[in-house]
Each structure stands twice: as structure tokens, then as C-alpha cells.
Design brief:
This protein has helices spanning 6-18, 26-38, 85-97, 115-130, 143-157, 192-203, 237-244, 268-282, and strands at residues 50-53, 56-61, 69-74, 100-105, 135-141, 165-169, 225-231, 250-255. The protein has an 8-stranded mixed sheet with strand order 1-2-4-3-5-6-7-8, with helices on both faces. The longest helix is centred in the middle third of the chain and has 16 residues, at 115-130. The chain is built from 8 helices and 8 strands; from the N terminus they run H-H-E-E-E-H-E-H-E-H-E-H-E-H-E-H. It has a single domain (6-282), classed as Rossmann fold, CATH 3.40.50. It is α/β, with parallel strands linked by helices and 284 residues long. The two termini are 21 Å apart. The relative contact order is 0.16. Helix 2 (26-38) packs parallel to helix 6 (192-203).
């Protein structure tokens, strides 16, 4: 698509000034993970409603009975950071604009929790959601987008029901980051050094090229219809292109000059992305 808007340019400048130091420094990310490992698990406080599902906190948006669709949303945060205001507001928007019941699980995060532990909780939630007998969309951003793609492959490999749709923003598809060089300096949000360390922590005993943490290396064929958004200036861009290559079931929408998870930001380009999502989920 075309060049980015003026508002997107301003947003990028702000993001560059707030980029976490642990993204570009081995010392900083090691210290960050060490501090994270000392924190106690406790429910996330929010003005939005949540429920307890088998010990996992799940935020809910919309009307469970009256909605026509269900969206299971996996939040991003490099597998170490908790659900935040961007996710709450976007889930609220999804519920209102798409007449959907949206569930956003607070899955276990690294370094205290590992990928397969979170898979178990998400699988239980997904199987329970199937009982609603409504169209289900798996959706997520960044690390959550990668988790969605891995989970969809997991469903296929275990002969479990696929969702109707998959929609992801800037998914992390290769935590091994096996295709250097990666331009960390020009990404206003992410950095190769931090991503590698946090990815290894999330993988736990799994190999970092296992499809359950790096869906790029799995078998994506036969999954639900997939819609992917990516900014052409983000660090994940070339890995996402590799994931989408040679698969007619994957639709990749990119925007020149844009950054990581751009559909979540209050910019004009995000409005166009939402119209694509609306068309995909509502079959317009």
C-alpha cells in the first residue's frame, strides 16, 4: 500500500523515544528477565470484566448470548509482557463493531511460564468456546499472533477443529530469528537481541525452531483462512513474508513505511485494516 500518513509518522517518532532498552542490550534483557522471574503471579487489575477459567484469568467483551461470532484474542508482549490498554480497547472495538463475543486469556508468560504450559490452558478455553456453536476467529498481535499460528498448527496436528478464520497482526513466526540481518536500529518497538533472549525463555525445553514456538517451521497448509497484517519497516517483515509465501490460503496485507502492529494504533491506516478484518469475519 501507499506511504504512511502524517499521524503514523508522529506515532513512530514517539515510539522510538519509548523503545525499551532491553530490546537492544543483552545486559538489559538479562536483567529484565531476572526481575520478571521474581514477580508473583496475580490477577491483572483492569476496569474491564474478566472471569476465572480453570485458574486462568480471561477478559471478556460483548454479549455472549446475542453475538453472532466469537473471537479468541491472544495479546502480544514478546511473551513476557502482560495484556495492556491497546489490547483492551481493541477487543472492545471488535465486540462492538463486529457483533462478537471476545475472549482475551491472560496466558502464562516467560520467564516463569513456558509455551506448552500456556498451550494447555488455551486449548481448554478453545474447546470450551466451541460449545457456543458460533463462528470462531483466532486473533492475535505480535507474540500473540505467533502463538495463534502455532496453536492453529497444533489443532491440526491433534485432529482438533479449526476455527473459521485466523487474523494476526505482525506475528512473530521465528523466535530463532534465523534469517539475519535484522534491522533493529530502525524498528521503533522491537530489537533482535531482546527478542532472541525472550524467545528462548518462552520456548523452555522446546527447540527454538519447534513449530509450537516458531510456526514458520511447521506445516501451515490446511489451516483456516488466514489474514496477516505487517508493516514493511518492521523487524519481522521478511520472516512474515516467508510464512505467507506459496500459500493461497494466506492473505498478507502490508503497508510501506509502517511499523510493528500498526493496526492497533490510532492512525488512518488502522481504519483501513479494520475494514479488511470486518469483511473477513463478517463475510462481506
Amino acid at each position: 500500500m501507499s506511504e504512511k500518513s502524517f499521524i503514523a509518522k508522529i506515532s513512530e517518532i514517539i515510539l522510538k523515544y519509548t523503545k525499551p532498552k532491553y530490546m537492544d542490550s543483552k545486559e538489559a534483557v538479562d536483567e529484565f528477565l531476572a526481575e520478571k522471574s521474581k514477580t508473583q503471579d496475580k490477577p491483572v487489575k483492569s476496569i474491564f470484566k474478566s472471569m476465572n477459567f480453570n485458574g486462568m484469568q480471561v477478559f471478556t467483551f460483548g454479549n455472549k448470548e446475542k453475538s453472532k461470532n466469537v473471537i479468541l484474542y491472544m495479546h502480544g508482549g514478546a511473551y513476557v509482557n502482560e495484556i495492556g490498554w491497546q489490547h483492551y480497547l481493541y477487543c472492545l472495538k471488535l465486540s462492538r463493531k463486529l457483533n462478537s463475543y471476545v475472549l482475551a486469556p491472560v496466558y502464562g508468560l516467560a520467564p516463569k511460564h513456558k509455551a506448552m504450559e500456556s498451550f494447555d490452558g488455551i486449548r481448554e478455553l478453545y474447546e470450551d468456546t466451541l460449545k457456543l456453536e458460533k463462528n470462531i476467529t483466532l486473533m492475535g498481535d505480535s507474540a500473540g499472533g505467533g502463538l495463534v499460528l502455532s496453536f492453529a498448527q497444533y489443532l491440526k496436528n491433534n485432529n482438533l477443529h479449526q476455527p473459521k478464520n485466523i487474523v494476526v497482526f505482525s506475528p512473530g513466526v521465528d523466535i530463532s530469528m534465523s534469517n539475519p540481518p535484522y534491522d533493529s536500529a530502525n524498528d521503533p518497538i522491537l530489537g533482535e537481541i531482546g527478542l532472541k533472549e525472550m524467545g528462548k525463555s518462552w520456548a523452555g525445553e522446546l527447540d527454538i525452531t519447534d513449530y509450537r514456538v516458531s510456526p514458520l517451521f511447521g506445516d501451515k497448509f490446511g489451516l483456516a483462512k488466514t489474514l496477516i497484517f505487517a508493516g514493511e519497516d518492521e523487524i519481522f517483515y521478511k520472516d512474515i513474508k516467508r510464512y505467507a509465501k506459496n500459500d493461497d490460503n494466506v492473505k498478507l496485507i502490508t503497508w510501506k513505511g509502517l511499523y510493528h502492529i500498526y493496526p492497533l494504533f490510532p492512525i488512518p491506516e488502522a481504519k483501513k485494516a479494520f475494514r479488511e478484518i470486518e469483511s473477513e469475519i463478517l463475510d462481506l
